[in-house]
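User: My instructor asked us to take a sequence, write out its structure as tokens, and then describe one feature of it. I'm not sure where to start. Here is the sequence I was given:
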Amino acid sequence: KDENSGGYVEGYNGNGLWSLAITYMAFVVGNIFAPSALALMGPRLTMIISSLGYVFYILQLLVLNDALLYTSSVILGLGSALYWTAQGNFLALNSRESTIDRNSGIFWAMFASSGIIGNLIVYTQFRGKEFIDTSTRNTVGAVLISMGSAATLTLMLLLPPYQDEETKEKERNNPKKGPVQALKDSGKLLLTRDMALLSFTFFFTGLQLNIWSAVYNTCIGFTAQFGEERKGLAVISGIFIALGEVLGGAIFGIFGKLTVSKGKSPIILLGYLCCMTAYILMFINIPKEAPFGETTLDNLAFIDPNKYLAVVASFLIGFSDACYNTQIL
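Assistant: Let's start with the prediction itself. The structure tokens for your sequence are:
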């Protein structure tokens, strides 16, 4: 909002938190129709088309406009719903019962590692800057657009899932479901006892996703007590969240056979303890005004905001998220 910041755009009043809310509202709607889209196009084509939603959302960084921001948020939400449903299906089709834990762990570690790479790129651009100027925003946007476009092109190289004779025979005896039947089947699945119980877990992990992916890092960037490099600290926080995610994905996914010998409950309990510890650290370390905008030096938390505690909380929340998601996958 500072006209002298070098990145001020007259008439632009876009709000990142509202954008996130719109994205996840569209995500909910998209998930209702994702099974139908998957039945119609298959997992590979669905992933290719839906991945363009991510690229379009980054494109709006180059032309800041309120309507474009919220429109791209809707497209991102719908695309994300299709993409995550399709990649889960593609992963399952390319795994056996003996390899699904390993493959899920590898996927989660690779997915989380993008947070390290992306945040390192952003950190090199944001370091030492209190405000993000137009040149910096365009540079970051161009790099992320290039990476997103390369990812879409990579999806085109994916081969169809391998099918042995037994699988082919099953497909011949069981005709492929149409979009309407896929929608009906997903509705029936939603009403089962297992899904009703899992819905509580999904609700919690959804809340936690919003906290670590948007709210917490934003709060760090708004906390005046962290000094002029607080924007850079917010990026470092994102890196440590990703490190926790990668470590959790490696331990509980790739080496899943060793870590689940006593069942999934100890891992879920460990994730709970880590996230509760992280939330306590956030609560005492971040001013209550931080979620709503830039704070002043007079806005204090229960303790003087500490950079190291902020980063420790970041790692713990990332690690706990991996504990939950590797077991859910």
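For the description part of your assignment, you could build on this observation: The longest helix spans residues 16-59. Try explaining in your own words what that tells you about the chain.
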